[in-house]
Design brief:
2 domains, 5-stranded parallel beta sheet, alpha/beta, Leucine-rich repeat, LRR (right-handed beta-alpha superhelix), 194 residues
Length: 194
């Protein structure tokens, strides 16, 4: 296992491809902007955690990782996932949460991974909407609160309102994703995501 989490790294060295027996890489919560294509040479890699970085893309070479089971890409700036991920036959867990993903080709991920990505994304925002509604109700009762309590509550509501703007964008992404998924998935799975 290679663990370089929380080290403010901007890139992984291209020599990582020489670590052919490497099974797990945790490079989360750095400042990674690029992942070297040589990572595709780590054929034994089963888990790759790149969450919490500044990645705008991941290399197509990830498609060479046939043993890859878990791919964590949440909290980056990734807009497109490479279609080569379809070649990762063992891939079971993909987390793309909190990315501005515009296009997730259905053929690029296994059915289980696709459904987990979609459900996790949708469930998070359902929770945020409930929190906003709760805060709005609390704000109506704010007349009974002290000045400091009222200010804290108002800050919370403002934060949630900003997140609602993100929710609207996320909902558009989700609908585009769902349309793509429903158009390409087997009829037996369609009801799972309706």
């Amino acid at each position: 296992m290679l663990s370089v989490a929380r080290n403010q790294l901007r890139t992984l060295p291209p020599q990582i491809g020489r670590c052919r027996a490497l099974e797990r890489v945790d490079a989360s919560q750095n400042r990674l902007e690029i992942v070297p294509a040589s990572i595709g040479q780590c054929r034994a890699l089963r888990a790759l955690d790149l969450h919490g970085n500044n990645l705008a893309a991941v290399p197509a070479a990830l498609g060479q990782l046939n043993a890859l089971e878990s791919l964590h890409l949440q909290q980056n700036m990734i807009e497109l996932l490479p279609p080569e991920l379809a070649y990762c036959d063992s891939l079971k867990d993909v987390n793309c949460f909190d990315n501005p993903v515009r296009n997730v080709p259905a053929q690029s991920l296994t059915d289980i991974a696709m459904i987990r990505w979609m459900c996790g994304h949708n469930l998070h925002w359902q929770g945020r909407v409930a929190a906003l509604e709760e805060s709005s109700a609390e704000l109506e009762d704010a007349a009974r609160l002290s000045g400091e309590q009222r200010m804290l509550l108002q800050e919370r509501v403002e934060m949630l309102e900003r997140e609602m703007g993100l929710l609207e964008e996320s909902t558009r992404n989700y609908r585009a994703f769902r349309k793509c998924w429903v158009a390409t998935c087997p009829a037996a799975l369609t009801c799972t995501i309706a």
